[in-house]
Amino acid sequence: MASQQSDSLSIIDSGQSRAPCSSSLSTPTQKRDRRSKIWDYNETSRETRITNSSGKMLWRCKLCHKEYLESGGTANISSHLIKAHSVDIMSSQATKVLSRQTSIKEAMARGQETSYKCRRLAEEPDTEHMMDPAVLEHLYVRWITACSISFRMVSREEFRAFLHYLNPEVDVWLPDSHMSIQAWTLRMYENERLRIQQKVQSALSKVHFTVDLWSSPNSLAILGMIAHYISENGELTHYVLALKEIEGKHSGENQAQIIMQVINDYGIASKVGYFVMDNADNNDTMTVSLSEMLLDQYKIYYNHFLTGFSAMATSSIWQPKPFSFKLRMKLLQKRTIQSYYRSPQKLKWHGGERKGHLAGYITL
User: Do residues 250 and 213 touch, judged by C-beta distance below 8 A?
Assistant: First the structure.
């Protein structure tokens, strides 16, 4: 009888159930999926099972050691986390809804920023409530660009019938010409570029760059450039500045020309900081060429010996870490360290250079 009463309860007293005779740990071969976020707050790993004296599986809070029957569902556990620890765990569906609401709010904010006038495509709308054409344009362009949707989708009768069913007013503002959608996309790109330009120019720190060259699925040589900086509100921020096709040789000089063009377009020559790159030899040539361009065009002395560090082959390389700036021994042999460092005591050396590793680094 006592065993049946214990099994019927969703909540199990922490002090009693933690006794060695009432609970045990096991890792069964056949496991039930534990995808809920509540298992992030379980005392053990997702794979390890905790059972009571009756063999029922338990969830044990790692914050207060309170126990619940796993068969009781996640509602009671979620309620416990909220009430006892102020931990709010949203379901995947709630997370998706919040993401959609955030996207719509962002689109509404962008719509208010753009002052261009949208032309109606019909004399009178079919519904009483008017939709915001600027928000419609922003959301539509975000959809086609994120999902690689053709411009011509807007002219498909099946697609327009679907939208008309959701809201007949869409026919008033959504054009049926792919050329109009192309114009929408280019206009939104330019608006976003100007917005990012203002933010990057207002950076509190130097603007540091991640640069990489790779081949697209359609065999185009693409140079990607991402900016990393501290924003006006003190947050670490990053934006994709450019995806440029390289024509001709993949030489360092050719890459430097493209990077310099991006720097000029965004007006951030005075804020150029460090570069994160792979260990290809043409990247050394690129930094040398870039320093020469900055000196010629802006009279800015850019020390290319200290401005690049290589991405080592680890899974955490893109995570923010204390900066480790690449210093190739063969380059340092040509210069004295004292001529480039005001605080040479910060330089730490490793004995011998190994392929794929740093020969020396500075930690800031």
Answer: yes
Q: Which of 60, 183, 172, 196 is nearest to 122 (CA)?
A: 172
Domain 204-362 sits in CATH 3.30.420: yes
Is the whole model's pTM more than 0.85, yes or no? no
Beta-carbon contacts of residue 325 (< 8 Å; ≥ 6 apart): 274, 306, 307, 308, 309, 361, 362
Q: How far is residue 92's CA from residue 98's CA, in Å, rounded to a whole number?
A: 10
Q: In this predicted model, what pLDDT tens digit does every residue of 78-100 receive, in sequence order?
A: 888 888 887 777 655 555 555 65
- Residue 230 is encoded by which pair of tokens? 């501290």
The residue among 68, 52, 76 whose CA lies nearest residue 9 is 68
Domain boundaries along the sequence of the chain: 2-85, 106-193, 204-362
Give the Cα separation of 43 and 309 in Å (integer). Answer: 40
Say how far apart CA 200 and CA 273 lie, in whole Å. Answer: 12
**Contact between residue 355 and residue 307 where contact means Cβ atoms under 8 Å apart:** no
CA angle 138, 139, 140 (to 5 degrees): 95
Q: Report how far residue 152's alpha carbon sits from residue 154's, in angstroms, rounded to the nearest whole number.
A: 5
Each residue's pLDDT tens digit, 230-280: 999 999 999 999 999 998 888 999 999 999 999 999 999 999 999 998 888
Distances (CA, A) of 326 to 54, 171, 345, 356: 60, 57, 17, 11
The residues near 81 (Cβ < 8 Å, ≥ 6 apart) are 38, 41, 61, 87, 88, 89
